[in-house]
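To the wet lab folks,

You asked to see what we're planning to order before we commit. Fair enough. Below is the target structure as tokens, and below that is the sequence we designed to fit it. If anything looks off to you, flag it before the synthesis order goes out.
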């Protein structure tokens, strides 16, 4: 069975413990590879390698760093199909989605930060003194040193590289940990980094459990900053551990996003996009809109059409081109999502569509001939599938509508006024993203200004420009990723004041 390896000091290595964790294929429910069960010893090796690499990497010209990062981007692009397949096998997502979104975005992350690093400028302030003298202040931005990047399972390579690329571009050396639930593409990235000639120790990837390998990264004295994406509870723990050590923190956490639909919207565009914003990636995108509020005159029409469209989504083999909804990432996660559907019914919710897990175990898993075939073949879809689920009749403030489910479950609810829907939208602890559908420009702006979320999409969803600030308010996180913001995060500002003598 394939054994994933850590990537430390430029080498692919086994974990110090010699122990491995099982890696499941969510579509088949079978173990198909093994993950290093790394611990603080592996993290120590990785931090040492990163510390050793830092003096040279941090002083390398931005242009040379750019060249290496662009080579990594080109290799990811070369292996697009194999990486998309690996992501699908590891995560359960449709391969078509990985091919169109996840892997191209990993390429874009490297290209964006490789080039951005060549356009960084810092500030200077001229200070006129009382006696007519002068001082010049200028700001240095110096890479922090060794930093930790920890990412979740829902968009594995996409989010892993979204952290690593700016850290490397800024001149930091990295100790990174992908989710133990979806480690495969991070492992493949290790090999591409070696092929691209990334100097040894600049990027170190340690696999394993969050509570073991992850916490060892967070608590290591030499790790100067943690860039984390994952659940709010984990973020809270990381903040508690890192704060007394005065580490810089960027936390991208959970969401419970509203999708607000006014009666004057472009109906067809809204309907098509709302199916995607509700159920893409089996609803496992932190930006999915899980609370859908519809202006009353449109409610019944929307309800009928939405159910109709959703009931035609094809659930099944993640590797088949025609599949819209693949497998849920793990058995535990499937059980969590089902428990929320049960809770919704207890809270008075009416299931309009879906609501159950699906048995596809008679269907064959069509693994492509070329990749990984020796590991998994002649398998059936015995994994974890669930019907996309629409629920109505829930109060806006019940638990189903307040807690993050992170699955293919949405609630729909009518509203009458802007003030009412704002109260609904802002009533949760989260504040990651919101979507608003209206053709009324003033209303769009009024709503955007008042809604409590870090990202607001008007008449669109998941339209991303990598230059924009990305992140959440309230319990959805601290700090912003994206653009120059991320490069600034990985650097320390130093003001130099020179008094000028004439
Ligand atoms: P998680 O918090 O369980 O795990 C995320 C990562 O943290 C994994 O690599 C895990 O191993 C590691 N980890 C766990 N405990 C740790 C610890 N004590 N110390 C250090 N590392 C630890 O989250 P998940 O289940 O993998 O991901 C789902 C969550 O991620 C959802 O809440 C979702 O909303 C959120 N998410 C947020 C964004 C965003 O941009 N805001 C994007 C994607 C996912």
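Sequence we intend to order:
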């Amino acid at each position: 069975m394939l054994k994933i390896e850590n990537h430390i000091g430029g080498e692919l290595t086994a974990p110090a413990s010699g122990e491995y964790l099982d890696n499941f294929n969510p579509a088949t429910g079978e173990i198909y590879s093994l993950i290093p069960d790394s611990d603080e010893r592996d993290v120590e090796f990785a931090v040492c390698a990163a510390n050793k690499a830092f003096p040279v990497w941090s002083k390398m010209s931005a242009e040379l760093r750019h060249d290496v990062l662009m080579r990594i981007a080109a290799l990811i692009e070369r292996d697009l199909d194999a990486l998309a397949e690996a992501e699908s096998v590891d995560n359960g997502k449709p391969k078509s989605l990985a091919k169109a979104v996840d892997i191209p975005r990993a390429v874009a992350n490297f290209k964006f930060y490789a080039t951005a690093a060549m356009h960084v400028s810092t500030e200077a302030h001229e200070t006129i003194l009382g006696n007519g003298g002068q001082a010049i202040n200028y700001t240095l931005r110096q890479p922090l040193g060794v930093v930790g990047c920890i990412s979740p399972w829902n968009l594995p390579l996409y989010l892993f590289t979204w952290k690593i690329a700016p850290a490397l571009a800024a001149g930091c050396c990295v100790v990174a940990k992908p989710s133990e639930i979806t480690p495969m593409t991070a492992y493949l990235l290790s090999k591409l980094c070696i092929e691209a000639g990334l100097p040894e120790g600049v990027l170190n990837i340690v696999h394993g459990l969050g509570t073991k390998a992850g916490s060892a990264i967070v608590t290591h004295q030499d790790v100067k900053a943690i860039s984390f994406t994952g659940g709010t509870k984990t973020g809270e723990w990381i903040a508690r551990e890192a704060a007394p050590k005065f580490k810089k923190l960027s936390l991208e956490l959970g969401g419970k996003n509203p999708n607000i639909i006014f009666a004057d919207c472009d109906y067809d565009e809204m309907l098509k996009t709302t199916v995607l914003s509700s159920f893409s990636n089996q609803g496992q995108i932190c930006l999915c809109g899980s609370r859908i509020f519809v202006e009353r005159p449109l409610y019944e029409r929307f309800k009928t059409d939405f159910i109709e469209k959703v009931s035609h989504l094809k659930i099944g083999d993640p590797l088949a081109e025609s599949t819209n909804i693949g497998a849920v990432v793990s058995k535990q996660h499937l059980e969590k999502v089902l428990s929320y559907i049960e809770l919704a019914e207890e809270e008075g919710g009416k299931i309009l569509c879906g609501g159950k897990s699906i048995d596809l175990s008679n269907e064959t898993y069509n693994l492509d001939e070329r990749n990984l075939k020796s590991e998994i073949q002649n398998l059936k879809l015995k994994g974890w599938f669930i019907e996309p689920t629409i629920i109505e009749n829930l109060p806006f403030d019940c638990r189903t509508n307040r807690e993050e489910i992170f699955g293919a479950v949405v609630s729909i609810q009518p509203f009458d006024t802007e003030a009412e829907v704002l109260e609904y939208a802002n009533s949760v602890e989260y504040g990651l993203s919101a979507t608003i559908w209206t053709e009324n420009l003033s209303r769009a702006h009024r709503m955007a200004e008042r809604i409590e979320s870090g990202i607001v999409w008007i008449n669109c969803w998941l339209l991303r420009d990598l230059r924009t600030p990305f992140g959440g308010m309230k319990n959805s996180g601290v700090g912003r990723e994206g653009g120059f913001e991320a490069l600034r995060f990985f650097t320390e500002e130093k003001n130099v004041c020179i008094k000028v003598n004439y």
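Structural context that might help your review: The pocket of nicotinamide-adenine-dinucleotide is lined by residues 150-154, 159, 177, 179-180, 210-211, 214-215, 218, 229-231, 234, 237-238, 252-255, 286, 404, 406, 432, 472, 476-477 (CB under 6 Å). DSSP finds 15 helices and 25 strands in the chain.

Thanks,
Computational group
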